[in-house]
Each structure stands twice: as structure tokens, then as C-alpha cells.
Write a structure and sequence with these properties.
The complex is a heterodimer. Chain A contains twelve helices and ten strands. Chain A is α/β, with parallel strands linked by helices. Chain A has two domains: 138 residues, D-Maltodextrin-Binding Protein, domain 2 (3-Layer(aba) Sandwich), CATH 3.40.190.10; 111 residues, 3-Layer(aba) Sandwich (D-Maltodextrin-Binding Protein, domain 2). The longest helix of chain A is centred in the N-terminal third of the chain and has 18 residues. Chain B is globular and about 65 Å long. The chains are: A alpha/beta, B mainly alpha.
Chain lengths: 282, 232
């Protein structure tokens, strides 16, 4: 019978602490569906604790691609979204699933590729021109392929370039997050479209260079959207509103402005609260 | 290769300094997977014993279902548990999506068929005459089952170890139903995935090493229990 005692001890040991999980009231929980870039860059690790401290809300951050985040908002499974896929965002606001879409910050996309730059796109001003050259050279291109904001942007650039890349063998979809896709590109010596934040965060291990940057088309704008409680009554509307207001507050904008300066020498995101989308990139 | 040394160094450093964040996610891994294994032990051994000892039409079908369940892909379990636990899903009223409780639930679903399948095999492996002998000596039905379970202790504990090993190392379901929320539902496997995508390979390797150490010590305890009263 001794060994049953041991098993009992093991069980108690494993079950007891689990009873003390913080059980917070439902109203104090906010589900934030966001993109991988805000988590992988580490920005949310700075913003969320200060929000929690200030308001007492407990934020459950679920990092997904922008497409999946918005699908969660559309189903009422998230309270507030922090995303970067403007066309899709406008659509869910127009359909009434999202309300109070507010601009939070921007950074930009870059085209990253191996140092050798086989397709010779370094320094090209227009992203669409660079994509055309990549297609012509049959240079390996790694696409996210996951309906994320970055993937949406990439597709719009291919459209501007007038190319349907999915026909080419040189075009591969990873179906992974930005960080992992950059790693795949580095490993295979391919090109990819990445947000600057994630690129800078991973740069030290990559060996990929920034080849194209600065095109207005490469602007990457983040908005915060509250999920409409009229469509989904179970949504924590008050919490979503508080979070959304916090993201455009002076305090949060100041954090965004300074985030990454110490570590990477340049900011990863530029605060934009109160600005108009059209004003950016000019 | 440098990276692996860096990782080992990092793991050592994180362990020696008792990094509070790493300590917390290690403890949560143990709690979640330990509780899930316990649940699967209760359901798996009892149901498995019933299946093994009773005769009923479609028994072979039931056993084949359990054996297939031993290979349940964690992501598929994660997907279904997520859909059930959604606010607007059938179990949405529980409000436990993105909590450690949801992770325990998903992991229990993964581990239960493993424990059950091994239980069925272990009980069926016992000599048939043993049952008759025990009953002939005047044991009640319940006592008979109890003695048989004790007799099958060795393979049953192997089943528990397999179940625990299956869930402590599983990432797909945990990340889907737990959400990898910092300081709340982040466990060793989901943290490893995240650190990898952040490019912090040394930390990712370190977390992997800590996971292996944790699994080793838990299995060491179970093995000690298993081997102590080995039938001679």
C-alpha cells in the first residue's frame, strides 16, 4: 500500500497549487487579439503590465495573425483587437463587428534578403519594382501565407506589380509567424517581406540585409478596434474601451516612442494617436 | 554548435539564479500536466479496467477506438476544446478559455486514451485463471478488481508515465486553449515556441533543457514507485 501513498502525495502536490489559480471576475478580463509582431517584438510585455497596474484589468493577450485576430473579433471571441491590416479592418468596421477604430502607431515593412542579393534589388525605390525583379529572376521568396497583416500587404504589392506569384516554384508559403518566416528565409537564403520591428529584433541571428525600404506602399499602420457589444453581448465592452483609450493615451504613446531605442538604437514603432491615416508616410 | 553551448549555459544560469519567470512557468507546467495526468489516471484506469474485464458486444470496436485515441493529435484536441469553450460555444458559460483550467482539460483529453489503452492491454495480459482463483478464495467482485489492478501495477504505472510524457511535451493544444499568456498560462513548451519565434534561441534551448530535467525527475519518482515492490 506504500506506493499508493506516494502516488497520493504526488497527486496532492500537483493538484493543490492549481486550486490557487487566480480566479478573477469575468468583468476584469479583457481578451486582446493581436498580431504576432506586437508580441514577438516585446512591445506588449512593456505596455500590458503598466495598463494592468493602472486599471486593474487582466489582459489575456492572444497573439495570432491579423486575419485570425479579426476572425476572432468577428465571432465575438475577443474584446479588443490590435491589428495592422487596414483593408480588412475597414471591412469589419463597415460590417458593424468592430467599432471605434483608432490609429495607434506605425512602422514600416522592409524587403529582406541574403547579402549576395542574386536578384539585384538592393536600393530599388518601389517595392512593386523589386517584386517584379524577384519574379523575373525566379528568386526564392518566402511568404507568410497565413492571412496576417504582413501577408495581406505582400499580396497587395504583388497585385500592384501585376504578378500572380502563386504559380511560381520560387514562391513558397511558410504558414508561420513573422519571426519563424524570417528564420526560414535566412536558412534558405531567400527573400521575404517583414515588418521592421520583428526584423530588428531578430537581426543578430539572421544574416539577412534590408534591401528595399522607404516606399510609401510599405507603410505598416496599427489600429486598435473594439468589438461591437451590440453584435456580441458577451463582449467586455467597458474593458475594451479602457484598453483602447489607454493605447492612444499620452502615457502609452510615450512608451511606444521609446520602445527599442535602447536595445536596437532606433525605435521599432512610431506613435500616431490622433493622426489621420492619409497623413502618414509623407 | 555555439548556440547549444550558449543554451546550456543559459539553462544553468536560469536554474542557479532561480529566475522567477522561469520558475513560475516550470511550476505551471508541472501543475497543469500533473493534474491532467491525475484526471486521466482516474478515468483511464477505471474505464480501461471495466472494458478489459467485462464482455459486451462491440468490445473489439471499443478497444480499437481507445487505441486510436492514443494517437490523438494535440492540435486537433486543442481546436475542438477551443471551439467548445468559446464564449458563444456550447461550454462558453464556463468562461474558462485561455486559463490553466482549459489547458488541464485539453491535456486530460489527450492523456486519458493513452492511460486507458495501456490499462486495457495490461489487464487483458493478466492470466485468466487468476480471476477464478481470487473469486474461489472468497473475494468480492470489488476486491477481485482491486487485486487485479495491484497485480498490473507495473504496466499501469508505465501508462501513467506515457500519459504524463505525452502532455508535458505537448504544445499545440496548450497554445490554443491557454493562449500563452505571460505570467498566467505560459508553460515550458509554449514559451519555447515563443522564444524561438523571437529569435532568442539560447533561451529556447535553455527552456527545452529545463523541460527535459522536469520530465526526468517526475519519471524518476514514478519509476522508483514502480520498481520498489516489483513482483519477484
Amino acid at each position: 500500500m506504500k506506493w499508493w501513498g506516494c502516488i497520493g502525495l504526488f497527486c496532492l502536490f500537483s493538484i493543490l497549487p492549481s486550486l490557487s489559480f487566480p480566479v478573477s471576475a469575468q468583468q476584469k478580463n479583457i481578451i486582446l487579439a493581436t498580431t504576432t509582431s506586437t508580441q514577438d517584438s516585446g512591445l506588449l510585455d512593456v505596455l500590458i503590465p503598466s495598463f494592468a497596474k493602472k486599471t486593474g484589468y487582466f489582459v489575456k493577450t492572444i497573439a495570432l495573425g491579423s486575419g485570425q485576430s479579426m476572425a476572432m473579433g468577428q465571432r465575438g471571441e475577443a474584446d479588443v483587437l490590435l491589428v495592422h491590416s487596414p483593408d480588412a479592418e475597414k471591412k469589419i468596421v463597415a460590417e458593424g463587428y468592430g467599432i471605434n477604430r483608432r490609429i495607434v502607431m506605425h512602422n514600416d515593412y522592409i524587403i529582406a534578403g541574403p547579402k549576395e542579393d542574386r536578384a539585384k534589388i538592393k536600393g530599388i525605390k518601389l517595392a512593386s519594382e523589386a517584386f517584379k525583379k524577384l519574379a523575373l529572376a525566379n528568386a526564392l521568396f518566402l511568404s507568410r501565407g497565413d492571412n496576417s497583416g504582413t501577408h495581406a500587404k505582400e499580396k497587395s504589392i504583388w497585385k500592384t506589380a501585376g504578378i500572380n506569384p502563386e504559380e511560381g516554384k520560387w514562391y513558397q508559403q511558410t504558414g508561420l509567424g513573422m519571426g519563424q518566416t524570417l528564420n526560414v528565409a535566412a536558412e534558405k537564403k531567400g527573400y521575404t517581406l517583414a515588418d521592421r520591428g520583428t526584423y530588428l529584433a531578430l537581426k543578430k541571428n539572421l544574416g539577412l540585409d534590408i534591401l528595399v525600404e522607404g516606399d510609401a506602399l510599405l507603410l505598416n499602420i496599427y489600429h486598435v478596434i473594439e468589438v461591437n457589444p451590440n453584435k456580441w453581448p458577451k463582449v467586455n465592452a467597458a474593458g475594451a474601451k479602457t484598453f483602447s483609450e489607454f493605447m492612444v493615451s499620452k502615457e502609452a504613446q510615450e512608451v511606444i516612442k521609446n520602445f527599442g531605442v535602447e536595445k536596437f538604437g532606433s525605435p521599432l514603432f512610431f506613435p500616431d494617436a490622433g493622426k489621420k491615416e492619409e497623413e502618414l508616410g509623407k | 554548435m555555439d548556440l547549444i553551448f550558449e543554451g546550456i549555459k543559459k539553462a544553468f544560469w536560469l536554474l542557479v539564479t532561480l529566475d522567477p519567470e522561469v520558475f513560475r512557468i516550470t511550476l505551471l507546467s508541472l501543475q497543469v500536466s500533473g493534474t491532467a495526468t491525475l484526471i486521466s489516471l482516474l478515468i483511464g484506469v477505471s474505464t480501461g479496467t471495466i472494458i478489459a474485464l467485462s464482455q459486451f458486444p462491440g468490445k473489439r470496436f471499443a478497444v480499437s477506438l481507445v487505441n486510436t485515441g492514443m494517437g490523438l493529435p494535440p492540435v486537433v484536441v486543442g481546436l475542438f476544446v477551443t471551439i467548445f469553450l468559446w464564449r458563444n460555444g456550447p461550454l462558453g458559460f464556463l468562461g474558462i478559455l485561455y486559463t490553466p483550467t482549459a489547458m488541464i482539460l485539453a491535456q486530460a483529453v489527450i492523456a486519458t486514451p493513452i492511460v486507458m489503452g495501456i490499462t486495457v492491454a495490461a489487464m487483458q495480459h493478466l492470466p485468466k485463471k487468476l480471476r477464478l482463483q481470487i473469486l474461489a478464495l472468497g473475494a468480492t467482485r470489488f476486491q477481485m478488481v482491486w487485486i487485479l489492478v495491484k497485480e498490473a501495477k507495473l504496466p499501469l504505472l508505465a501508462g501513467v508515465m506515457a500519459g504524463f510524457g505525452g502532455v508535458i511535451s505537448e504544445v499545440g493544444a496548450s497554445i490554443m486553449v491557454g493562449g500563452n499568456i505571460k505570467g498566467y498560462s505560459r508553460v515550458l513548451t509554449t514559451a519555447t515556441v515563443m522564444e524561438t519565434s523571437r529569435g532568442n534561441f539560447d533561451v529556447a534551448i535553455a527552456l527545452g533543457i529545463i523541460l527535459l530535467l522536469l520530465a526526468y525527475f517526475v519519471n524518476l519518482i514514478l519509476t522508483t514507485i514502480q520498481q520498489r515492490e516489483r513482483p519477484r
